[in-house]
Recover the amino acids of this structure.
C-alpha cells in the first residue's frame, strides 16, 4: 500500500486523470459484463461492454446495441451512473471525497482537481469543486422535474416510469451524452417543445463549462466584468447555436426524410434541436442517415468544435477555435499580437490551441482512414462517425453497429482521446519536463 501511495504521489496530475478514466472504463465494462445487466440474462461480449462503458463514461452516446432492448434496468442504471461520473469528472469526485474525509484539500488534491475542472488558480479549486456538484444537481433536478411531468401528463407513462425517464434523460442531457431509452432516440418528440427545448437547454448549460457558470452566477448583470474566457465561451456558443440552426433549416427545409413533413413550428423546433445537439450531445429528433451531405458537413464542424472548456462536452472546445480564428485575423492584419476585448493573448496559449487542433484533426483523419479500410462505408459516413466519437457526441448515420470489431476499437480509442483531451493525454505521456538553459539561433523558413 505504501508503494502504491508513493507511486501515485510521483505521478503528474494529467497522468492520473488519464489513468482514472481508463480505470473507470474497465470497472464499467466489468459491471456490464454481468449476466443480469442484459435483458436476455446472458453476458454481453467484452467488446460490447467495453464500447458501451467507454461511450458512457466519455459522455458520448455511440451504441453498438440498442440500449432499451439490450440492457436490463440494472444495465441502464450502470450506464446512467457512468455518464454522471464521466460528466462530473473522476478527479472532481475524488477531490470532493478527500475534502470531506480530511477536512481540506492538500496541494496534491488541488492539483488533481485543477487538472479536471481547469481552475485558473489553485486557491479556486475547492470553491469550484463544490460549485461543480451544486450546479450539476440543480440543472439535472430542474430538467428531471420538467421531463417527468411531461412524460406523465402528456404520454401514457406511469408516475414511477416518468420519474425514471426524467432523471435518466436529464443526466444524459446535461452531461452531453446521447443515451436515450427509446430505440429511435427522441424522434417521437420531434415536435414536442417541452421535451426538445428542455433537453436542448440542458445540453447548452452543460456545454458552457462550470467556470463560466460560476462566474455568471456572480456577475450576470455585469458582462463588462466577465473574464475573457467567459466572454469568448458565451459569444462563440451563441454564434455556433444560431449558425448551426440556420444551416440545418437552410439545407433540410424541404428534405422529405427530415424536416420536410413538419409544419413551420415543427421545422423551427427540429432545426433548433439539430443545431444544438452536434455540440457533443448526440440526441436526434430526425434521422441523420437521411440528411443532406451539406448538413452532415456542418455537423462535422460543430462536433469537432464541441463545447466549452471544463464542461461536460467534448471537442477541441470553443475557446480553442476562437483563439485560432483570432490568430489568423491578427496575421492577416499584420498585428504581431493577438488581441480581443482589449486583452492580449499569451504566446503559450496560441501554441496550445494550435497543438490541440492539430492532434485532434490528425486523430480524426487517421481514424477515418482506418474505418474506411475495415468497411465499405463512404467517406462522409466514416468521417461523421470519427468526428462524433472524438467530439464525444454520439450522433451516427446508423452505421455504428455495423462497424467491424477493429473499427469499434478505433472508435473506443477516439472516444477516450476526445474525453481526456489531446493536450491532457499528451502531457500525461511526457515522463518528465525539461527546461532548456540555452536557445538555438533563429532562422525563418519560407512560408507559403
Amino acid at each position: 500500500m505504501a508503494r502504491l501511495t508513493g507511486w501515485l504521489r510521483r505521478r503528474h496530475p494529467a497522468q492520473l486523470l488519464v489513468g482514472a478514466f481508463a480505470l473507470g472504463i474497465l470497472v464499467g465494462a466489468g459491471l456490464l459484463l454481468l449476466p443480469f445487466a442484459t435483458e436476455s440474462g446472458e453476458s454481453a461480449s467484452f467488446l460490447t461492454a467495453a464500447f458501451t462503458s467507454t461511450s458512457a463514461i466519455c459522455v458520448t452516446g455511440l451504441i453498438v446495441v440498442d440500449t432499451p432492448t439490450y440492457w436490463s434496468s440494472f444495465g441502464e442504471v450502470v450506464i446512467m451512473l457512468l455518464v454522471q461520473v464521466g460528466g462530473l469528472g473522476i478527479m472532481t469526485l475524488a477531490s470532493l471525497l478527500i475534502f470531506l474525509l480530511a477536512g481540506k484539500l492538500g496541494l496534491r488534491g488541488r492539483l488533481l482537481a485543477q487538472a479536471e475542472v481547469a481552475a485558473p488558480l489553485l486557491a479556486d479549486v475547492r470553491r469550484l469543486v463544490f460549485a461543480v456538484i451544486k450546479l450539476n444537481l440543480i440543472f439535472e433536478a430542474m430538467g428531471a422535474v420538467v421531463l417527468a411531468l411531461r412524460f406523465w401528463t402528456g404520454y401514457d407513462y406511469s408516475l414511477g416510469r416518468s420519474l425514471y425517464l426524467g432523471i435518466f434523460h436529464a443526466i444524459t442531457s446535461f452531461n452531453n451524452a446521447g443515451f436515450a431509452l427509446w430505440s429511435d432516440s427522441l424522434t417521437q418528440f420531434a415536435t414536442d417543445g417541452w421535451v426538445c427545448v428542455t433537453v436542448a437547454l440542458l445540453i447548452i448549460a452543460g456545454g458552457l463549462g462550470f467556470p463560466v457558470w460560476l462566474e455568471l452566477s456572480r456577475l450576470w448583470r455585469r458582462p463588462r466584468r466577465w473574464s475573457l474566457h467567459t466572454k469568448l465561451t458565451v459569444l462563440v456558443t451563441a454564434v455556433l447555436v444560431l449558425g448551426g440552426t440556420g444551416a440545418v433549416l437552410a439545407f433540410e427545409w424541404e428534405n422529405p426524410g427530415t424536416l420536410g413533413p413538419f409544419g413551420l413550428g415543427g421545422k423551427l423546433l427540429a432545426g433548433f434541436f439539430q443545431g444544438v445537439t452536434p455540440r457533443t450531445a448526440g440526441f436526434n429528433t430526425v434521422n441523420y442517415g437521411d440528411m443532406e451531405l451539406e448538413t452532415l458537413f456542418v455537423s462535422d464542424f460543430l462536433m469537432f468544435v464541441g463545447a466549452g472548456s471544463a464542461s461536460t462536452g467534448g471537442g477541441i472546445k470553443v475557446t480553442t477555435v476562437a483563439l485560432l480564428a483570432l490568430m489568423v485575423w491578427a496575421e492577416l492584419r499584420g498585428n504581431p499580437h493577438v488581441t480581443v476585448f482589449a486583452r492580449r493573448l499569451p504566446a503559450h496559449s496560441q501554441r496550445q490551441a494550435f497543438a490541440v487542433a492539430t492532434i485532434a484533426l490528425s486523430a480524426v483523419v487517421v481514424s477515418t482512414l482506418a474505418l474506411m479500410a475495415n468497411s465499405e462505408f463512404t467517406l462522409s459516413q466514416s468521417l461523421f462517425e470519427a468526428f462524433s466519437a472524438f467530439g464525444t457526441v454520439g450522433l451516427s448515420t446508423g452505421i455504428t453497429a455495423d462497424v467491424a470489431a477493429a473499427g469499434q476499437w478505433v472508435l473506443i480509442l477516439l472516444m477516450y482521446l476526445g474525453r481526456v483531451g489531446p493536450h491532457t493525454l499528451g502531457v500525461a505521456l511526457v515522463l518528465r519536463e525539461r527546461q532548456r538553459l540555452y536557445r538555438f539561433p533563429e532562422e525563418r523558413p519560407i512560408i507559403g
